[in-house]
Amino acid sequence: MISQLSWKIGGQQGEGVESTDRIFSTALNRLGYYLYGYRHFSSRIKGGHTNNKIRISTHPIRAISDDLDILVAFDQESIDLNAHELRPGGVVVADAKFNPVLPETVNAQLFAVPITKIAEELGTSLMKNMVASGASWALLGLPLEVFNKAVEEEFGRKGPAIVEKNVEAVKRGAEFVLEQAGGPLDAFKLDEADGKQKLFMIGNEAIGLGSVAAGCRLMSAYPITPASEIMEYLIKKLPKFGGTVVQTEDEIAAVTMAIGANYAGVRTMTASAGPGLALMMEAIGLAGMTETPLVIVNTQRGGPSTGLPTKQEQSDLNAMVYGTHGEIPKIVIAPASIEDCFYDMIEAFNLSEQYQVPVIVMTDLQLSLGKQSCEELSLDKIVINRGKLVRESELSELEQHQLFKRYELTADGVSPRVIPGDKHGLHHVTGVEHDETGRPSENAGNRQRMMDKRLTKLDGLVIRDAVRADSPNAQADLLIIGMGSTGGTIDEARSRLVGEGITSNHITIRQIHPFPTDIVKAELNKAKKVVVLENNATAQLAAQVKLHAGGADKIESVLKYDGNPFLPSEVYKACKELN
Amino acid sequence: MATFKEFRNNVKPNWCPGCGDFSVQAAIQRAAANVGLEPEQLAVISGIGCSGRISGYINAYGLHGIHGRALPIAQGVKLANRELTVIASGGDGDGFAIGMGHTVHAIRRNLDITYIVMDNQIYGLTKGQTSPRSAEGFKTKSTPEGSIETTLSPLEIAMSAGATFVAQSFSSDLKQLTALIEAGLNHKGFSLINVFSPCVTFNKVNTYDWFKENIVNLDQFPDYDPTNRMAAMNKIMETNGMLTGLIYQNKERQSYENLVAGFQEQGLANQDIQLSQDQFEKLLAEFK
């Protein structure tokens, strides 16, 4: 019996790779397994090799695996490109249609199943996905009735005839492969899972869900990979709560519309990736200058320019921290898990209103698009905090020509905020330097006071879980620092380092800006050597660490910028070498 | 009820004496009072440029944003609180150069916003460069040999983008301008009001006198039917865009807010945002 295994499906984009994965993983989720998915895809719709990999486990899992147990191949290319990942004794289930051949160097069992033929016999080659997933399921020796339930759920709306056909496709796929293999494979017999169905979603969906829970009711956005799922989720949900999503003409319109809506009192977000973020920069400055709350999600992908639009990277950090001209207060937070994606949206909306600043939530492609099991989410843990938003009933009357002091100088730098429509809250808002009532002012003293007011608002800010630390060693050989989706991979590497006698601490920096200097400093002091791990070429996170917390003499960078997430073995090897 | 005086504040505009924008300011104040608004019910969202300062010169809620983006900001305000009356405003550079993309799409989207452009055919605040509205051959600091680009026709563009309200006026005609802004505020959808608003400092060609000589006023044609799209387009072309009055209005098309699924009459900003446990569980159930 094993506690986890990895399964991959490969084929041409548009031929059912996605749907095979979906149905297979949905069924596994019904049994209570923890799942962690990774999508390898190209910036095109039809054609081109694509593959989806899932890790299946009886315990929580947060990283892709180095190797592969089962590869399902719709074409020879999928074998050629992926078979090297197979561990000795692995299995390839391939469509008999293309006379599959395994490379000589690969030690694996090949089952050629007439996937296309069975599907076509049942009426349409579209059912290839069912034949393939049925065969995979059968090899694992899992109960077929659970799979059939998942099929029923997927196709129930299309009527019993369709359900029946798909169930038949699953059965034929299963029967064929079992006959070839002589029954389920003992080596792949998974321990029983806890039977509790988990939440199972991609990061972008968790972000959408978190936004709804946070009270976000409007989104303005422009489609872009890998952010579009957020708007696609919200356009289905927001109308149920009175809100909507506007697909704008560009990202400049998206962000400025969001600023207008936040100014008018509705929690509004936009989401994009690097190219869109670049277009938003001037407007981010407007939000900072006018102290208008704003939430932007930046799902990082490979840059620069169009770069690698469907690949993993963490290279927008500098753009998010330093972007926009002039100097404004700004918060950048980086969820590091699927649960973070949900809770951090509530945090982001709260922070944006409490401090009246733009908040950027940065994810990376793997976190945004990797489908994974998610711990139970709770509404009880959520508190909506709108900061110093004052409503009409609390306002005192204004004299004629008197304006509300929207930018009143206060001890904490945050001023009371009203929204348009309130009778006694009239004031002006401008991106030009202004006085306490919002009227333009070039007075030198005023300028300095207003700059200080804005720029000190975030002094000492430490958000919930600003730095997530797993640092049990008072003096560790290594401190590994990461952000975003890399945490699970780092932890797997660490458990292998233990075997080498290397002690390690691990921190995930979640509050990227303003930098949580004190916490990071304390962690640096607990390690002989520090490794900062990031998916970019210029060590942007390491630069932040060195700038704020020091430690330049003992910090080494491990960088990967080939478009793929780190593998546990790579992190292990790099750490071992650096130690 | 508020009079136009309630829409005045005590800020002295930084416009040059004689600037056409003063009349636009006065016309907005009068129109707002005439349609029965109180200052707090109005939000004026403006762009950057001399004319963009207008939001600071009207006693109402106002946001002076960034260059070319008055319209998306204004649309955000309207979506957030449709109970507000929203005016977007700026110059021809703001709306027809840097912000042209937004102008066309705001027209298509048709939110209930009144967009007033102060069109002086030149860049004033940057001291005299060409605008998309400058005539061919027009000499400016950036076109010393005369502009060699075609003059943009915002009216034709608006018509072809599906505008539901297109009007044009002239700063000297405060009565017509006020009436058109009132009509725009009453129109249920996006209204474009382009106003010839002469720049007395940098544009020595398109002067008050020049406009008076060249403008065709539609108010003089009682038979003109502004609901006829084809006739409107013909009239714009016939006069080379040098006409004033209500050029086109489509009262049939619903505004965006009325077409959004699930959108209620009450402004979103005034609605409760807390989810119930039941609502939350329904959302979670989809991920199991």
TrEMBL record, chain A:
UniProt GO molecular function: oxidoreductase activity, acting on the aldehyde or oxo group of donors
Q: Which residues form the Pyruvate:ferredoxin oxidoreductase core domain?
A: 476-570
Q: Which UniProt keywords apply?
A: Oxidoreductase
- The organism encoding this protein is Paenibacillus methanolicus
> Where do the Pyruvate/ketoisovalerate oxidoreductase catalytic domain residues begin and end?
14-175
Whether Oxidoreductase counts among this entry's keywords is yes
> Which lineage is the organism of this entry classified under, starting from the top rank?
Bacteria, Bacillati, Bacillota, Bacilli, Bacillales
**The protein's name:** 2-oxoglutarate ferredoxin oxidoreductase subunit alpha
SUPFAM superfamilies, sorted: Pyruvate-ferredoxin oxidoreductase, PFOR, domain III, Thiamin diphosphate-binding fold (THDP-binding), TK C-terminal domain-like
Kindly give the PANTHER family that the UniProt entry links to this protein: 2-OXOGLUTARATE OXIDOREDUCTASE SUBUNIT KORA, PYRUVATE-FLAVODOXIN OXIDOREDUCTASE-RELATED
From TrEMBL, chain B:
- GO BP of this protein: cellular respiration
Write the record's keywords in alphabetical order, separated by commas: Iron, Iron-sulfur, Magnesium, Metal-binding, Oxidoreductase, Thiamine pyrophosphate
- Name any cofactors this protein relies on: thiamine diphosphate; [4Fe-4S] cluster; Mg(2+)
InterPro entries linked to this entry: 2-oxoacid:Fd_oxidoreductase, OFOB, PFO_beta_C, THDP-binding, TPP_enzyme_TPP-bd
Every copy of the Thiamine pyrophosphate enzyme TPP-binding domain together lies at 48-195
Record-annotated Pyruvate ferredoxin oxidoreductase beta subunit C-terminal domain positions = 199-264
What Pfam families does the record tag this protein with?
A: PFO_beta_C (PF12367), TPP_enzyme_C (PF02775)
Give the molecular function GO annotations: iron-sulfur cluster binding; metal ion binding; oxidoreductase activity, acting on the aldehyde or oxo group of donors, iron-sulfur protein as acceptor; thiamine pyrophosphate binding
Spell out the protein name for this chain.
2-oxoglutarate ferredoxin oxidoreductase subunit beta
Q: What is the lineage of its organism?
A: Bacteria, Bacillati, Bacillota, Bacilli, Bacillales
